[in-house]
Amino acid sequence: MADYTKMWQELDVDIEKHDGLCEVLPMFYENIYLSQENRPENMNYYNFVISEVHGLRIKELQDSKKEDKKVVGSFCVFVPDEITLALNCVPVGICSGSQFWVPDGEKVMPRNTCPLIKASIGAKLSRTCPYFQSCDMVVGETTCDGKKKAWEILGEHMDVHVMDLPQMKREKDKLHWIDEMNTYKDVLEEKTGNKLSFENLKEKTELVNKKRKVLKRLYDLRKCDPVPISGKDALLVSQIAFYDDIDRFIEQTNNLCDELEERVKKDEGVFDKDTPRIMITGTPMSIPNWKIHHIVETSDAVVVCEETCTGTRYFENQVSEDAENMDEQFENLANRYLGINCACFTPNEGRVEDVLRYVDEYKVDAVVYNSLQFCSTYAIEYKNIEKALKEKGIPVIMIETDYSEEDTGQIKTRVEALVEMVREKKGVMA
Amino acid sequence: MADYTKMWQELDVDIEKHDGLCEVLPMFYENIYLSQENRPENMNYYNFVISEVHGLRIKELQDSKKEDKKVVGSFCVFVPDEITLALNCVPVGICSGSQFWVPDGEKVMPRNTCPLIKASIGAKLSRTCPYFQSCDMVVGETTCDGKKKAWEILGEHMDVHVMDLPQMKREKDKLHWIDEMNTYKDVLEEKTGNKLSFENLKEKTELVNKKRKVLKRLYDLRKCDPVPISGKDALLVSQIAFYDDIDRFIEQTNNLCDELEERVKKDEGVFDKDTPRIMITGTPMSIPNWKIHHIVETSDAVVVCEETCTGTRYFENQVSEDAENMDEQFENLANRYLGINCACFTPNEGRVEDVLRYVDEYKVDAVVYNSLQFCSTYAIEYKNIEKALKEKGIPVIMIETDYSEEDTGQIKTRVEALVEMVREKKGVMA
């Protein structure tokens, strides 16, 4: 890997502390990812991306800035990348998946806060995330109490714009969201000096739809048995989608899917046919949070679907491309984004329907409901999802956890018991 | 006390379980309240109210229902009682302050949920709260993640209407809140068959303002040194304001204030002059949550103000009475309600200003920041309030607690240390 120290210094990264992070990640990745057998060859691209996660991609962001592009960070699938891209900005999902950042977050946030939020804030405050350091601004949203209040703290340290996501999905809430997207557009126009055009927005809408399509293509391939790609690898692809160059990502992921299609034709998979198929539903998993997937896939089971924001919620439903003017464009955007069934909405019946549909589509044997600690909305929705799954005869366990490794053994025991039950039911021996 | 068993049975109260609650409360109240020395004589009214808390007041509600009034429960200071009253309904604040209800709440809610929410839900599910059982409907609001999702569960058991409180305070958010109040009006009109008139709303607006005025009068008297009423008693009056008959409450509380004025004239107080004066700021305390006040006032200090929803946030700011038509009425209501500086808003700078102003007005020596466990919004705001108070030289401690008594000793130790520090600073001996 090239030496990026100078670049990091220019970004005011805390070099010494950041070195600590850089030392850990490669071995962590090797243990979890490179140890997998029978991986698709095209995963090499994503291996490379990870090996350069704070290097080459950050250099690309700096190069973009030299071309007068602004870098805009976000933390949530509701922030419309279409608008960001159409105003000649580079959208990046922000680091929030490592325990490394949690202690610094806890200096300004209560411990009883979800680890994703503590890690985000800690990443900024400790100056050890070059993505954060590259951002000209970040866009927060009012999706939960913790995030809503975290932006106030973050705003003391950098330029933050908050989008007020509605809490319901009535017609007037859609109008409110259209208005919020317009305000976001105004803020970005002011920031960049650019003007949003119908053509640009149309072009970028089609581009982001292409990204959604390739992710959908990848997920559709996971419906096969044997499954041609591990859940861990699919999760990684999803995670990288949040910050990689969008054109390259689409191309590379299509290449991966081509390879997976060949595998499917040859009835090849990464796990044996009839391996217990697990769906994970719940809160997002950002890099390098691979904890639950790793546990499942080292317990004689495979993750075939994630009903999460780093899974189906990120790519399901296209933005309609039939708009003939800007107002229609914004309405189409609102329709797509408010179609996401996040637990932040009340009510949120659509999520139960999604989960049940995915169980059928992905031939799911059992569900792991994963909630980040102190995430009230997802934790509270568990009872409803559990009830619906039980009525369908699908076993489910609830795992509430953070980024630490302390509970790994305990979680593994529970997952193994779940897998064992599925195997008995299917009549398959481990 | 009369025998209300038949009434409770008619309300489908779980009599046996409810007996368990009734057995505990009187002794609990006696220990905490009746043990106080030098109480104002007019506190006898509130003693009586508590002794009949599940009796006479519930009977009154049943009598109202016979007169075709609907009983409407709520959990939050944002639900506009003016509209409820003007449509000939009886608003009641709902039980949520006892550990007694928490285990039943935890059957359907995650343990990592604020005790107030768990207690509310548990009170309904266990059928041991005759207020809940008397309600024709309850009105929830989207003030926090936990409540927002709790209404979904509650809605499986009774008629629930949810008001979508905005998360910001911009002009468009005010319009949104006006619209939500109109929707609430529509729902109540449908429920009651009544029609909201300008005159009725005007009359009830003036009535609710009168309630606010008498509470303000009570609080203003607490600014004196020696303070003529204990914090515990003032809290009780506030708590009772949420569900007592409004006309009687205003009358009785004015009587109490008359007595307190006499005390002030005679320089009489419930605690010695120069007793350390504590302000409590944070989350609401509903009956019978007297935990922190009792600890403070048995530690040689007195609570002189609550910057909480069962304190200043409930009565500060009147609704302007200058409206000449319904639209203006609703705008005046919105202006008053969105003037409440609840941590559910982002940003919420107004709360820091309120806290600093009360420190001066109430001659506060130290602040106890009280947050119910797992209340993210208030817990996160602590850092900001702490910073502002420290800059002003006012000591502050953060107490995060639930309804159990397990941490009482630990909290008392911390409060005593705080009081000791204040005494040293003031040069007063205990």
TrEMBL record, chains A, B:
Which keywords accompany this UniProt record? Coiled coil, Iron, Iron-sulfur, Metal-binding
| Named cofactor requirement(s) | [4Fe-4S] cluster
Residue ranges that the Swiss-Prot or TrEMBL entry lists as coiled coil: 243-270
As for family, the record states: Belongs to the FldB/FldC dehydratase alpha/beta subunit family.
**Name of the protein in question:** Double-cubane-cluster-containing anaerobic reductase
Q: Which organism is it from?
A: Tepidibacter hydrothermalis
